[in-house]
């Protein structure tokens, strides 16, 4: 009877040892998981910081693009105005050249008439004398 109880006790001790080993293994696995969890949380926080930084950079780039587009539109408007002003100035210059040419032609023809008249006046003056 004692032998049977000793065998039973040995069996129970082996089961207890196996259970204690299992508990120890489980505790170690849990500690590793906690360690992994902590590392993952640290990585997650770092990724969240990077995401925030990227978002801020995207917003800045969008603002830069918007500013550039506004500046480009402004330059296009100024360029069109400058083209119009150049066109107007060119037209005015052409008109001034025509006017100047006509004035010179008129002055030349008057000069011819005046010299003709002065010649005629001289002749009249000679005739009078």
Summarize the structure.
The chain is an all-alpha fold. Helices cover 98% and strands 0% of the residues. The model has no long low-confidence stretch (mean pLDDT 87).
Would you kindly provide a written description of the structure presented here, covering whatever features stand out?
This protein is mainly alpha-helical and 129 residues long. The protein is built from one helix and no strands. The longest helix has 127 residues, at 2-128. It is rod-shaped. The N and C termini lie far apart (184 Å). The model has no long low-confidence stretch (mean pLDDT 87).
* Beta strand %: under 5%
How far apart are the termini?
Answer: 184 Å
Low-confidence stretches: none
Mean pLDDT: 87
Given the structure, what is the number of helices? 1
Structural class: mainly alpha
* Helix content, binned percent: over 70%
Order of helices and strands: H
Largest sheet: none
- Calculate Rg over CA atoms: 54 Å
Strand segment tally: 0
Shape: rod-shaped
Task: Please name the defining characteristics of this protein.
129 residues, rod-shaped, mainly alpha
SSE blueprint:
Blueprint lengths: L1 H127 L1
């Amino acid at each position: 009877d004692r032998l049977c109880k000793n065998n039973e006790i040995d069996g129970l001790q082996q089961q207890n040892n196996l259970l204690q080993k299992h508990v120890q293994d489980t505790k170690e696995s849990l500690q590793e998981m906690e360690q992994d969890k902590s590392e993952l949380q640290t990585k997650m926080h770092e990724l969240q910081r990077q995401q925030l930084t990227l978002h801020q950079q995207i917003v800045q780039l969008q603002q830069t693009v918007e500013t550039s587009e506004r500046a480009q539109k402004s330059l296009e408007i100024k360029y069109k105005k400058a083209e119009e002003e150049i066109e107007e100035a060119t037209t005015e210059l052409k008109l001034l050249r025509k006017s100047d040419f006509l004035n010179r032609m008129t002055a030349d023809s008057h000069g011819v008439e005046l010299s003709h008249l002065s010649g005629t006046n001289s002749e009249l003056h000679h005739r009078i004398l």
